[in-house]
């Protein structure tokens, strides 16, 4: 009984340590690269979700779930998630694209961009970047439009610098 309590305590301590370390590293990355705070929150939430899911599975192992039972449980969960993500593949691809845009794309909030594509001939100011879409303001039409992040990742984007 005491060993289970000690193992759970170590798991919680490790979880809080990893979360604290992630916060500090993300904050230093944001300051270094001038990233918007709301994008930091999005990335931190994704990391937290990963940490919590991993901790949940480790907790199941600590509580005595056998590897065979754990394997059946994990494959069942993954099968359900796989079917759900396949049905909503565009949502998953937009979420993945937002992470890639966060770390590797030079586009930032406030930049004026032009989407280089015959289907999407749009030029506008980036007002917000969320987990699934980017909000553009088109000054010539005085409209706000949303574009899925996957479009911004797949299509060529021209950053228009102010003169």
From TrEMBL:
<keyword id="KW-0472">Membrane</keyword>
<protein>
    <recommendedName>
        <fullName>Mechanosensitive ion channel MscS domain-containing protein</fullName>
    </recommendedName>
</protein>
<keyword id="KW-0812">Transmembrane</keyword>
<feature type="transmembrane region" description="Helical">
    <location>
        <begin position="42"/>
        <end position="65"/>
    </location>
</feature>
<keyword id="KW-1133">Transmembrane helix</keyword>
<dbReference type="Pfam" id="PF00924">
    <property type="entry name" value="MS_channel_2nd"/>
</dbReference>
<dbReference type="InterPro" id="IPR023408">
    <property type="entry name" value="MscS_beta-dom_sf"/>
</dbReference>
<feature type="transmembrane region" description="Helical">
    <location>
        <begin position="6"/>
        <end position="22"/>
    </location>
</feature>
<dbReference type="InterPro" id="IPR006685">
    <property type="entry name" value="MscS_channel_2nd"/>
</dbReference>
<dbReference type="InterPro" id="IPR045275">
    <property type="entry name" value="MscS_archaea/bacteria_type"/>
</dbReference>
<feature type="transmembrane region" description="Helical">
    <location>
        <begin position="77"/>
        <end position="104"/>
    </location>
</feature>
<dbReference type="InterPro" id="IPR010920">
    <property type="entry name" value="LSM_dom_sf"/>
</dbReference>
<feature type="domain" description="Mechanosensitive ion channel MscS">
    <location>
        <begin position="91"/>
        <end position="152"/>
    </location>
</feature>
